[in-house]
Amino acid sequence: MVTASRGDGMRRANLALVLRTVHREGPRSRAALTEATGLNRSTIADLVAELVGDGLVLERAPDPVGRVGRPSPTVAPDPRVVAIAVNPEVDALDIGALALDGTLVARDRVPQTRLLTPERTAELVGERVAAWRRGTLRGRRLVGVGVAVPGPVRGTDGLVRTAPHLEWTDAAIGDLIASATGLPTRVGNDAALGALAEHLFGAARGAHDLVYLNGGASGIGGAVIVGGVLLGGAGGYAGEFGRNRPGILAPADRRSTDGVLEDEVSRARLLAVLGLDEADDAILDEALRTSSAPSVRDETERQRRILATALANAANVLNPAVVVLGGFLATVAALDMDALDAAVRAQTMPACAEDLRLRVAGLGENRLLVGAAEAVFEAELFPSP
């Protein structure tokens, strides 16, 4: 955690500002940090020295080629600082270790033949972290665990109110993982964390207003960022697009009587039409792109039509600059992005469609782990004074 020897709130805020800048924007010279933060050179030098002493940044000599005068040292996040990121799903547990400099140090996918309980999830995370500490993460500084859960998470304390496909209700997964690892643990909705990751580092970088929809084995989650701030709602549950009743223009497209969006636009339906029992995102993507079966084409086109209406509704209500699609939704979209874009615009008010961009997630299969790690870094390294 960023500390300040003077116990000064403003100083803590400035330390967090410098560390956040090099973490999110990449290594910077002291001169560039002075310009980026608005702080003076002597203050930057003092803050950087403290961050170096705390083991959070490194200073290295700059490349002298082409430089005139005395070069400014480059300040970079210390890659030995690591967050553990976890995503439990109905078919697997994904767990990774991400360094403060953005490097994915380790990643493991643990397939599951039965639903994970909160207790089993914590047990597996504890075992993996212990093994990594003896090997891959030996000598690294672990600052916490972030958990991306497919379901509504209470904003005040990280309680998983319900993860319906995992059959979790009021699960204190954060406490269980903290006990299993000895590390502070932060829990968030998977789509909210995916939106954060894509906003900071991925397809929506630089956009202040965006809608993110995540398609996973548990269905469709969503999140909204307005003015650069994640929209939480009164309890922290905003963005559950997958539970909305979809607008289906052609009655023949309906597959579920009175179903919600995630019943109609469904990873399970794609696997079924492909004849697959299970598949990760990469395998599903390859199978859909290479299949020539008319049934596969018809199902992806059906899902894309329903998805287009859902995205148009979101665009009309929220007027985002960017809509980002992750998971199997990215695969369905990428099969014919032009057709999806045209279908969305045809159902969106012209004013809302003017600057709208549809994009697939830029961070691919790591998007939820990046978001979960970011929640840890934000809470443990950049806390509000």
Q: Quickly count the helices.
A: 14
Beta strand % = 15-25%
- What's the arrangement of strands in the largest beta sheet? 6-5-4-7-10
* Bulk shape: globular
CATH architecture of the largest domain: 2-Layer Sandwich
Q: What structural class do the secondary elements suggest?
A: alpha/beta
What is the makeup of the main sheet? 5 strands, mixed
CA radius of gyration is 22 Å
CATH topology of the largest domain: Nucleotidyltransferase, domain 5
Spans of at least 5 consecutive residues with low confidence: none
Mean pLDDT: 93
Number of domains: 3
Q: What is the highest CATH level, the class of the largest domain?
A: Alpha Beta
Q: What percent of the residues sit in helical stretches (DSSP H or I)?
A: 40-55%
Topology, number of strands: 15
Helix-strand sequence: HEHHEEEEEHEEEHEHEEEHHHHEHHHEH
What is the H level of CATH, i.e. the homologous superfamily of the largest domain? ATPase, nucleotide binding domain
Q: Please report the distance between the alpha carbons of the first and last residues.
A: 12 Å
Describe the structure.
Helices cover 41% and strands 22% of the residues. A hairpin with a 4-residue loop joins strand 5 (92-99) and strand 6 (104-111). It folds into three domains: 9-77, Orthogonal Bundle (Arc Repressor Mutant, subunit A), CATH 1.10.10; 81-193 and 367-380, ATPase, nucleotide binding domain (Nucleotidyltransferase, domain 5, 2-Layer Sandwich), CATH 3.30.420; 206-361, Nucleotidyltransferase, domain 5 (2-Layer Sandwich), CATH 3.30.420.40. The chain is globular, with a radius of gyration of 22 Å. The protein is built from 14 helices and 15 strands. The chain has 385 residues and is of the alpha/beta class. The termini are close together. The chain has helices spanning 9-25, 30-37, 41-53, 118-134, 173-181, 190-201, 261-264, 267-274, 281-290, 294-318, 328-334, 337-346, 350-353, 367-380; strands spanning 28-29, 57-60, 74-77, 81-88, 92-99, 104-111, 141-149, 160-163, 168-171, 185-189, 210-216, 219-226, 229-230, 322-327, 357-360. The mean pLDDT is 93.
